[in-house]
Structures are given as C-alpha cells and as structure tokens.
Amino acid sequence: KLSMGTNTAMEQSLEMCRKLQSEDRWREDDKMSLTILEAQFCEHLASARDDDSLSHSIAAINSYISVAERSTNAAQASEASLRLAHFCDTALKKLHGEYVQTSVSTECAEALNGWLVSSLNDASSLAEVFILHTLKALAASSAHKSTPARHLLPRLLTLLRETCPDARDYSQTLLRVPTWLFLDWIPQLLSMVSDVNLRKVAAPLVQRLVSKYPAAVRPHFNLIKETMDKHISERMNFSLASSLHDGFNRGMELLDFPSNRLNFWRQQIQLREYQHDVNAASNIVDGMISDLTNTEDPLLGLINKRFVEIASPILTSAIATARREKTSVNAALKRAEAQIVAVWVKEFPGLHNASRIRLSDFSSWFASYASFAGVSTALEIPGQYDNINAPPDMERHVTIMGFAPEVQVFESKQRPKKITMRGSDGRDYQFIVKGGEDLRQDERIQRLFRAMNGLLASNTESRGRGLEVRTFHVSPLSNRTGLIEFLRKTSPLLRLLNKPVEEANMTAFVEHQRWIKERATGLGKRKRESAHVDATTHSDYLSAIGKASKDDSVAILTRLKSATTSPDALRKILFTAAGSAEAFVMMRQSFATSLASSSICGYVAGVGDRHLDNILLDISTGELVHIDFGYAFGTATHALPIPELVPFRATPALLDVFSPLNARTWLETDMCRTMKALQDGSTLLKGVMDIFLRDPLIDWERESVSAGTQSHIQNRITRAWGKLELDNPAVVVVDECESKHKNSAHWTDLRKTLVGANAPPAKKCTDVEHQIRALLDLATNPELLAVAWSGWRPWL
C-alpha cells in the first residue's frame, strides 16, 4: 500500500493500523512496529497536499518521536529517528524552496515548522528535530547497519552551521556517535572549529579524532591551519606535531624541480597582486624565500642545494629592490626567474629530459627514513582511510618501510614523478608526486565519487548492474604538492586510439582547424587557398557555432576519424586483451557500465576537459577511469575560452565498442539507473558538495574575482544540485555560458544550436528517462562536436 496504493487505500490502512493498536494482544515491539507503520501512512498522506496535510504531518512526527523515545528495542528506535530525520529534511528543503519530488507543500512546511516552534520543548524547528534524531540514529546504529544514517552526516554538519548552536548544545550528543563515522568529514569539522559560534559543538569531536586517528586528521589540518583561529591552530599543531611527517611533506615538495617551484611561487604572487591583496602577497613571498633561498636546509639533495645556491642572492636582491622602490614584486621576480633559469640550464642541461633520477638527488630525507622504518611512529601508506565501512584497525594499517632508490619522471608539462613505497606487508605501493598543482579539488571529486558509489551500491537496480565509478586515492599535502595513486594496467585512450592510417596525407588536428576557420570566416576551400588566412583562434571556434549543417558536421567528423584511427579500434583492443569471445563479452559489459556511470556521475559533478589523455582504459578489466579534475562544477563550460557544450564524452570511437548492438539503447538504461540512485541520495551529495562552498580553492577565487560576483561559487553548486532535480541539460549549458557569452556576436547561434529557435525550452525534464535522452542528444550532437576544441579530438 505504501508504494502502490491510492490515497483512499492508504487512509483505510491507516485506520486499520490505529484499530489494531487499540487491541491488547500485542507485545511492546509489535505496538512500536505498528506505530512506525502508522507514521509512514501519515507521511505519505501528508504529501497529498490536501486540507489534512498538516494534521497528517503532525501525526507522523508525534508517532516517530513516540517510538524513538519509548522503544526499548534499539533497532526500532533508530529506525524511527532515521525516518523522522528524512521527513523533516524533505519538509525543510521545501521550506527553503528546493525541488523535492515527494514532499509536503511549502505552505504545509511553514505551518509545520511553526507548530514545532510553539509545541515541542526539546526541539524548536524542523532543522533541530532533524539534527537531534539524526544524531540518535547514528549513535544507535551498529557498524554494519550505519550506512543509511551516515548518508545524512554531511547534511547534519551543514544544518549545524545554519542553525544557531547557542540555543542547544549538541556536543555531548555528538560524542555518543562512533568517532570513525566522521572520518570522511574532517575538513568540515576543522572549518567548524574555526567558527567561534560552532566551536563549542565541534571542538570535543575534533579532539577525539585527533586522539584516535591522528594520521587521518594531519593532512587536512596542514591544508587549513593557516586559515584557522590562531590559538586553536597552535593547540592542534602541538597535538599533531611530528618531525617525521614534516620531513615526508618536505621531501615530497623537493621532488618538484626547483625551477618549477619558482614559477609556481611567482604565479601565486602575480594573482595576489592582481587582487590587490598586499598581505597575502607578502606571505607568499616569505614562503618562497623559505623554500628557495635557505642554503642551510638539511633536507636538500644535490639538485635542490645547487639551485638554492644560484637563486638565493638573485631572489633576495630582486625582492629587496622591489620593496624598497615599491614596485611590482612579480615583475622583479619575472626578471630574476629568467636569470636564474639561464644559469641553471647551463649547469644541468639534461636534467629536465631525464626519465629516471635518484631520490637522494632531490632530498636527503628519503635515505634517512630507513632508521624510522618498523617503529611505532613510522608513516602509514597513504589511502587507508578511503572507503571506510567499519572502525579502522590501526594496528593492521600498512606502514612505509622504505622507498625505491629512483623515481620515474613523466613527460608532461609539470614533470611529475612516480615514487615507489615499500610497505610493511611486503608489497610495493606506487604514487605519482605532482608539484605546482593544488590537488584539493581532485581529492574532493574523488570523495564525491565515493559517496556516489555508496548510493549506487545501496540501490538494488544499480547494484545488480555493477554500476560504479572507478576511484583512486588523492592526497593533497599542501596547496602546491600532492600524491595520486598510480593506476597500473591502464593506458590513456589517446595512446590507444590515435594511430594514423599510413596512406592518410593530412593531420586531423590541422585539418579540423582549417574546417573551423572556413566556417568562421565564410571562406570556401578554394578562396582560403588563394588568400592569406591567419591561424585559427578561440574566436573562430565560437564564430563557427551554428555555421555548419548536421550533414556537414557528420562529414568532417567521419573523415577525420577514418584518417586518425582504424575502424572499431577500441573494440579490437578489448577483444585482443580479452583473449576469447566469452571474456570479451564480460569486458564489454564492464566498459559499458563504467561509461554509463562515470558519464552521469561526472555530469552531476560538472567534470569537464574530458579529452582522451584524461580518460584511461584498464586493459585487464575493460573499465574506464577518469583522471585530472581541474575543471569541475561547470568550469569547462563557464570559464574556458572555447566552452565545452557537451555534458560528457560519448564520441563515435567509444560507442563503436557496442557494435553491432545499439549503444544508445544500452547506455540509456544504465544511465537512468545511475541517475535515479543519485537522486534518491541527493541529501548526501548536496552535503558533500557543501565542502566546496566552505573552503573555496584558489582557482575558484580567481574565477569569482573575474566574474565580479561573490555568488559565483554558490551558483556553481546550485547548478550541480539542479542536475539532481531534473533540470533540462540544454538549459543548464545555456545558463553556464550566459554570463560570459550573452553580449557576444555568436550568442544567438550558440543558444539556437543548444535549445533551438522555436518556443522557449522547458526548464525541467518530465522524468529521469527524459533527462537522460536529452543528455545523450547533447553528447552525440554532431553540430556541437564538430565545433569543439581540436585538442579534445571530438572525432574520436
């Protein structure tokens, strides 16, 4: 009746429940079960939005509270508290104007909140009832049954911020919740401790986390301590102090080439000068001096020591001159950088091209670590607090016994290094050390994906299909250094697909740019060949939007694909790796589910820049693995000079894997399952995304300044929430483009290509199936793919 019955049937069932409760033949547990069932019927009837909605809502709350407070059965009390928390949360969202598929009306939510304020002594609002009973459910739940209550934790922390904690002290109730349940939310708790209004609530819990799980707290504390209250920061720093961990962090920093570190510092100073933030710029200068001019640093290896000897006098002089003359420090550093690098390259001419370098050449710390290996204070292998489903057993955690003597140097721009850690379990653990990048956003996207995986595992349909996103460990050590788990047996799709056909006499990249130029300028091929034409620019891509027909777009994409890769290339790679037809079917299934789930999860998170180097294929399983999340929450559409207009990558080379089956039919079903599971857990996901609001990254701050509005970051989160609320995908893209492109000459064609030229599009989709069809329409639209940036290789 609860899932399928009409309102009349539910009213009859409610009367039956109440009649049965009046009989004396029931045990106490049975009476409580009937009371919970009665509350569920009342809750459903309240959402009918008729004249009795308020009375049904009040009855549901009273029934749930009755069981939560009177039942001697812990499981029943926990269930009642959990159901009450969910009911209050949906009403609260309605009260705040959020989209909720099934809930009471806004008027009923307002009246219900007013009734709570005037009627209950132990809780005075929907928010406080939610907080109190979420904490009760968490405290009562056992480790193996804690998942439903855990999903409410980020929402709980958000509401603790928004309500007035001075009216109620939740600190003791928080301490009754198992401490390990908060391991995923350490950044939020640290941020709360810094808030004078929330310190009383959060401080005892943070102290317990520091005491029980210092290795889990320390990395997050190191990232936020400079922005925390000074006295709180000093006390925590004393509790977490570890010369071993400090040496590890410094050693990892020194693995970044010193010339790269100098360039990073200068760019940060340039940003702060642009923002006219004198104090921040001065602090960054001090950090640079400490990093690059201290010749007495005992952890410097040969490479870094020589660089410091070269750079120290030049940097010191340049900074002193700029400060004395009150001129731009960035300009002075730019000249100094050129001078330092010129000397550096002469002394170490082949260093940046080396494929392997000894660890000790970067830092002496790695050699000295051997004396600490095996002792109780030894460092843990990173990543052991990911995917926590039970209290961590610290004694069984793997520690670092040592390091391989050399690092492998990759060829990408920042020259990241692959380091091998020897574990106490006899295994090797490999990580990529990245310098000059803030990996906090990558770490948070991984945390969001892990939360999404939890929802997919909790949903019967998505779990049955094996839908999940492949995640990996990311550990930011500072705002400029971090570790990323190395993914074995994977290869970038570009390396697998981009194998030119020998007889092709053109480069696809150049040919695509020529095609863009023709559409942007209106020049035909003959006119272009007879006239001088400048190189293709960003504005050419924008001007080309809407200038080519569907047939013309399909033709260029098909021609470039045939010139770049062999037919069904990815399908053949999987078949060869599988070794048999039966194994190939399983690998194709794995490929399909990973494509469907990663596409939808990535769409909700607004992950962009999905070029072929940022998607890996696991040759052993067929899974797709996404990496590099520098562009998230719509940045690739909103901020890039050539906006990404497709929601995810579903290009021909990927869809060919499904041949001879219909790729779209296959993907639609699994994408719908994924989106429904995420919508069911929207409370959890919105709470996780709140982290981005509370501690904006420096790139977000830069975009906010350029956008000229402090609400820029909030708008990005709000759009992400809208994707969970059936927002029309085409309208979402138009909204993301509007602030930057509305007053441009190409705006009309851009908008027309996305939403058409007829009646205004509906802002909401009718259901999930409609939303997924709209997403696939955008992702496979040849008119959008043909005008994408050439480096994205939309033909593959």
Quaternary form? single chain
Q: Tell me the strand percentage band.
A: 5-15%
Number of domains: 3
Query: Nearest-angstrom radius of gyration?
Result: 29 Å
Organism: Ostreococcus sp. 'lucimarinus'
Domain FATC: 764-796
Pfam family, one: FATC
GO molecular function: DNA-dependent protein kinase activity
Give an overview in words.
InterPro entries: ARM-type_fold, DDR_Repair_Kinase, DNA-PK_dom, FATC_dom, Kinase-like_dom_sf, PI3/4_kinase_cat_dom, PI3/4_kinase_cat_sf. With 796 residues, this protein is mainly alpha-helical. It has 3 domains: 7-240; 242-387 and 397-436, no CATH class; 580-782, Phosphatidylinositol 3-kinase Catalytic Subunit, Chain A, Domain 5 (Orthogonal Bundle). It contains 39 helices and 10 strands. The strands form 2 sheets. Strands 1, 2, 3, 4, 5, 6 and 7 form a 7-stranded antiparallel β-sheet that branches. A 3-stranded antiparallel β-sheet has the order 8-9-10. Helix 28 (569-578) packs across helix 29. The longest helix is centred in the middle third of the chain and has 24 residues, at 302-325. Residues 501-505 have low confidence and may be disordered.
Structural features:
796 residues, mainly alpha, Phosphatidylinositol 3-kinase Catalytic Subunit, Chain A, Domain 5, seven-stranded antiparallel sheet, three-stranded antiparallel sheet, 39 helices, 10 strands, 6% strand, globular
